[in-house]
Amino acid sequence: MTPADTPSTGQPPVEPSFEGKWALILGASSGFGAATARHLALRGLNVFGVHLDRRATMANVEAIVADVRAAGRETFFVNINAADDALRDKALDDFTAHLAERGDDPAGSVRVLLHSLAFGTLKPYVDEDGQPSLTRKNLEMTLDVMAHSLVYWSQGAVQRGLLGEGSSVFGMTSSGGTRVIPTYGAVSAAKAALESHLRQLAFELGPRGIRANAIRAGVTDTPALRKIPGNDRLLDEATRKNPHRRLTTPDDVAALIGVLASPAGAFVSGDVVACDGGEDVVG
Length: 283
Prior knowledge:
Elements: E1 22-26, H1 31-43, E2 46-51, H2 58-70, E3 75-79, H3 85-102, E4 110-115, H4 136-159, E5 168-174, H5 185-205, E6 211-217, H6 231-241, H7 250-260, E7 272-275
Parallel strand pairs: 1-2, 1-4, 2-3, 4-5, 5-6, 6-7
């Protein structure tokens, strides 16, 4: 009897192609990243988590690590600024060395690379008096963290052979990438750039058997969303207009990523895949 044939326990079935492989999750300590780490561990993946947390929020990280290990999987977590070039290279080198110490072949060892970094500036472009509000530094930082860093992590993973045949690259986008929301301009630009980067990665990495997709989640009650001014209105409106009469959850997104990263999603690439219960199609 295979794992997929076992009686239902309320948990997702283990995916045979995930056994012994890893998920590299950028932004692993909360929201979509945390939910995906837990879900993919239950599906069979070990978790290489990248996060940026101070002492006050490290309990969240410890809980995620404990859950992944309780699922019988290995963890490799680093607490760094994922947008720092030197720290990124060191993390990837340390992870590759970790695999070597375990006697594992690093080639194609990362089955999922998820970019779920939510750190950007929420300011209007001009204030009420017509003066600049968003600065060059604000804009460049937001684009670098929330979009461009995906390219650099993907490059580093490919260079080290960590991504290979059957691997998937995902980035978290939102409908805000194509709509106007007060104070969301820099993040909107980052989401649009992220989608563009993923299309290019799908094109360039396709011959290697690697697919790349953006996941467009519906409005989700996450720590990142709570930082958006007027978030209560966003939550209420999304609940009202969603055909399912509820918000998207991080677990909804994690489950979709699990499917798309499996062999069943092998020919889905270069796309923006919605996970919102039909929310975006309702005017």
